[in-house]
C-alpha cells in the first residue's frame, strides 16, 4: 500500500545506499543489513536484539514487535523514539516529513531510463498507448500530449463507431446477438447488448472477437493518416472495449 510502490528502488540499490551511509557516519560501526520479507523481520526472532528505534508514527509497529517477541518467548525490546525532520519544501501531495514517498512523487514525469534504441522500430510516428480505469487521468494526459503536437486517437470513440449502422461490426454483432438488441431506429441498444455479455464470459468473448480486431484496424488506419499528415507522435487512449 505504499505510494507509487512500483517506483520503489530494488533492494540491492537501497542496501548499497544504506551501507554507504553507515560507513560514512561511523566506519567502525558493526552492522548487519537484512531484507525484510514480512513486517517484522528478525526483530521478533533474534534473541540478541535489545533496542528498536522507532518514530512517533512507527511506535505502534514497535509495540507489535514486542507483542510478537513475548509470544515467541523473547524479552521485550527497549523502544527508543526519535523525532522525524520536517520537509520544508514538500509539495501539496507530498509528506510533511522527509519521506521516500515524496521522493517517488518527484520521479513522476522523469525518465527512469533512456529511451530504448531499437532499429526494428520505426522512428515515426511514435505511438503511445494510454490505459487505466475511470478517473485515472487518460483524457488529461492525452490533452497535454495533443498540446505538444501529438495526434490523439480515442479508442473509446472508435469502440462506439464500430456499432453504428453501416459500421464494420454492426451486421456481425446483430447477427450474433439477435434483433432484440436493435432499437427502432436501427441503432444497437448498448444497454441490451451489455445485459447479454457482462457476466457471461462466453458471450463477452464472442463480442470482443468481433469488435476488437475492427477497433485495432481503425486505430492503425488513423495512425497511418497521422503519419501522412506529418504528425511524428500519436497518442491513443481507452479504458476497456466491450459493450
UniProtKB/TrEMBL annotation:
Gene3D superfamilies: HUPs, P-loop containing nucleotide triphosphate hydrolases. The keyword Nucleotide-binding applies. It holds the Pfam family CoaE. GO terms for molecular function: ATP binding; dephospho-CoA kinase activity. This is COASY synthase. The lineage of its organism: Eukaryota, Metazoa, Chordata, Craniata, Vertebrata. NCBIfam families: dephospho-CoA kinase. GO terms for biological process: coenzyme A biosynthetic process. Keywords: ATP-binding, Nucleotide-binding. It comes from Rostratula benghalensis (greater painted-snipe). It comes from the Eukaryota. The keyword Manganese does not apply.
Amino acid at each position: 500500500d505504499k505510494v507509487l510502490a512500483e517506483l520503489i528502488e530494488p533492494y540491492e540499490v537501497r542496501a548499497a545506499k544504506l551501507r554507504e551511509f553507515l560507513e560514512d557516519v561511523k566506519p567502525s560501526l558493526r552492522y548487519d543489513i537484512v531484507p525484510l520479507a514480512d513486517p517484522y523481520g528478525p526483530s521478533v526472532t533474534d534473541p540478541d536484539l535489545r533496542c528498536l528505534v522507532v518514530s512517533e508514527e512507527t511506535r505502534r509497529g514497535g509495540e507489535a514487535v514486542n507483542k510478537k517477541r513475548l509470544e515467541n518467548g523473547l524479552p521485550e525490546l527497549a523502544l527508543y523514539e526519535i523525532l522525524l525532520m520536517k520537509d520544508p519544501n514538500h509539495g501539496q501531495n507530498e509528506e510533511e516529513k522527509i519521506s521516500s514517498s515524496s521522493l517517488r512523487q518527484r520521479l513522476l514525469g522523469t525518465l527512469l531510463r533512456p529511451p530504448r534504441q531499437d532499429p526494428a522500430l520505426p522512428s515515426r510516428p511514435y505511438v503511445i498507448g494510454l490505459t487505466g480505469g475511470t478517473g485515472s487521468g487518460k483524457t488529461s494526459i492525452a490533452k497535454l500530449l495533443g498540446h505538444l503536437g501529438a495526434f490523439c486517437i480515442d479508442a473509446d470513440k472508435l469502440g462506439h463507431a464500430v456499432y453504428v449502422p453501416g459500421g464494420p461490426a454492426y451486421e456481425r454483432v446483430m447477427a450474433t446477438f439477435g434483433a432484440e438488441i436493435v432499437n427502432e431506429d436501427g441503432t444497437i441498444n448498448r444497454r441490451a447488448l451489455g445485459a447479454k455479455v457482462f457476466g457471461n464470459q462466453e458471450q463477452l468473448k464472442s463480442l470482443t472477437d468481433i469488435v476488437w480486431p475492427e477497433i485495432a484496424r481503425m486505430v492503425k488506419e488513423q495512425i497511418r493518416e497521422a503519419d501522412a499528415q506529418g504528425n511524428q507522435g500519436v497518442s491513443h487512449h481507452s479504458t476497456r472495449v466491450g459493450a
